[in-house]
């Protein structure tokens, strides 16, 4: 080979080496950028959680100055909306995928500020991920809890959207959620199983009565009362009974009639006589006696990614 050939070959080799170095640098830079974007996403979701906590405090405070309370609530509502828009833009621009926890938190936040359009993809993806039981990384109890919460969230979305067929979709999701709970009886135990079923009956009845479907709402509360009769543990009996009474008190004007069953009322009074306590509703999670506990406010344990065990993150979508 002539000297010019050697020079040409050397130039080609240097060019390949430079390309390889550039490619590695690009990959490292992309990985760093992805890590930064994921951290930014986590920070934004934490900020949303903080704002939602403020919103819960405002709801429970019930300030005597209604205008001031409304102004504060509107301010927090606007902050959550801004954060959701920022998260949506970040997910789209950075091509991020979300795990189940991130989807359920964003769906919950969007629903609580009345933004059903934003909530829909997150709620749909949360149900999809929770139903992907073939993914390793979560045990059976975690999966069943995720399925119940996700179905309940999507049912809430359907009820609030109210398009043709949405009420049937919501009812179907509530029925699926109750089936998930019943299938977890051997892990939850009888008291927690009945407590969760009562909560699901109350939530569905709440929507039905607000929509004017009083007969269906009464039917659901009747089932909740029957489920309450199965609970023998005093603490669970007191807590769930108080929730039923508070709900009935809150909805009495809407149905213009009796909501609780006679059997429940007699058993409730007998329960309190046996424990020498007053048969009055007990304020639960907030200072509002009509509040229903919201399990979506709980932050589940997240499963870390590892080469050995996958997580539900792999198939996440959401924006």
Q: Which key terms come to mind for this protein?
A:
319 residues, mainly alpha, 11 helices, 72% helix, globular, disordered C terminus
Which helices and strands, and how do they pair?
Blueprint: H1 3-61, H2 66-94, H3 100-112, H4 116-130, H5 140-161, H6 166-183, H7 185-188, H8 190-210, H9 214-228, H10 234-255, H11 262-274
Helix pairs in contact: 1-2, 1-3, 3-4, 3-5, 4-5, 5-6, 6-8, 8-9, 8-10, 9-10
3D structure, described in words:
This protein has 319 residues and is an all-alpha fold. It has a domain at 1-96. The protein has eleven helices and no strands. The protein has helices at 3-61, 66-94, 100-112, 116-130, 140-161, 166-183, 185-188, 190-210, 214-228, 234-255, 262-274. α3 (100-112) runs antiparallel to α4 (116-130) and α6 packs antiparallel against α8. The termini are far apart.
The biggest sheet, with number of strands, parallel, antiparallel or mixed sense and barrel status, is:
none
What does the overall shape look like?
globular
Total of DSSP H or I helical runs spanning 4+ residues: 11
Share in β-strands: under 5%
Listing every helix as H and every strand as E from the N terminus to the C terminus, the arrangement reads: HHHHHHHHHHH
Radius of gyration: 26 Å
The helix-and-strand class reads mainly alpha
| Distance from first to last alpha carbon | 59 Å
Give a brief description.
The chain has 319 residues and is mainly alpha-helical. It has eleven helices and no strands.
């Amino acid at each position: 080979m002539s000297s010019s050939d050697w020079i040409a070959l050397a130039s080609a080799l240097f060019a390949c080496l430079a390309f390889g170095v550039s490619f590695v640098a690009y990959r490292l830079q992309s990985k760093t950028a992805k890590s930064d974007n994921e951290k930014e996403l986590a920070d934004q979701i934490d900020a949303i959680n903080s704002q939602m906590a403020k919103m819960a405090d405002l709801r429970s405070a019930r300030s005597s100055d209604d205008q001031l309370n409304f102004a504060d609530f509107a301010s927090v509502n606007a902050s959550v909306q801004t954060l959701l828009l920022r998260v949506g833009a970040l997910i789209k621009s950075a091509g991020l995928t979300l795990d189940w926890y991130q989807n359920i938190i964003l769906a919950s936040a969007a629903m609580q500020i009345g933004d059903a359009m934003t909530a829909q993809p997150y709620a749909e993806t949360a149900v999809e991920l929770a139903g992907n039981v073939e993914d390793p990384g979560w045990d059976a109890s975690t999966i069943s809890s995720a399925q119940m919460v996700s179905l309940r969230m999507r049912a809430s979305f359907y009820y609030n959207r109210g398009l043709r067929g949405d009420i049937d979709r919501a009812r179907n999701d509530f029925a699926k959620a109750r089936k998930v709970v019943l299938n977890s009886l051997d892990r939850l135990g009888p008291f927690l199983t009945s407590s969760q079923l009562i909560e699901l009956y109350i939530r569905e009845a709440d929507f039905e009565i607000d929509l004017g479907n009083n007969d269906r709402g009464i039917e659901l509360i009747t089932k909740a009362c029957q489920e309450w009769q199965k609970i023998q543990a005093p603490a669970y009996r007191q807590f769930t009974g108080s929730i039923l009474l508070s709900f009935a008190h809150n909805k009495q004007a809407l149905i213009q009639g009796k909501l609780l069953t006679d059997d429940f009322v007699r058993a409730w009074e007998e329960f309190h006589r046996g424990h020498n306590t007053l048969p009055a509703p007990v304020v639960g999670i907030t200072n509002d006696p009509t509040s229903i506990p919201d399990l979506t406010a709980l932050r589940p344990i997240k499963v870390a990614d590892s080469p050995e065990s996958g997580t539900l993150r792999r198939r996440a979508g959401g924006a």
